[in-house]
Amino acid sequence: MYRFVSAAAIAAALSGCAMVNPETPPGASYAINCPSTQLEHCFAKAKELCPNGYQVMELRRNNDVIMQAISPDRLVVKCQG
């Protein structure tokens, strides 16, 4: 599991885009990972996935420089409508 998360974080960081995390929390529509310091990619993906709008259920930002290099930011949304 740790390998999968690490690989996903590295892939997101290198690609510069947001990716939908397959481990979405209960009650949420999507969990979206994006490169640290590029949270706008998460919001753009949420808008794409939820054209009728969405509610932010969780927002995790990495402010620590070391964590920014290895762990993506995370946006969990519930689509409206």
Written overview of the protein:
It contains three helices and four strands; from the N terminus they run αββαβαβ. It has 81 residues and is α+β, with helices and mostly antiparallel strands. It has one domain (2-79). A four-stranded antiparallel β-sheet has the order 1-2-4-3. β1 and β2 (30-34) form a beta hairpin. The chain is globular and about 40 Å long.
Supply the helix-strand structural class: alpha+beta
Number of strands: 4
Low-pLDDT parts are 1-15
Oligomer: single chain
Shape by Cα distribution: globular
Key traits:
81 residues, alpha+beta, four-stranded antiparallel β-sheet, 3 helices, globular, disordered N terminus
Summarize the structure.
With 81 residues, this protein is an alpha+beta fold. It has 3 helices and 4 strands.
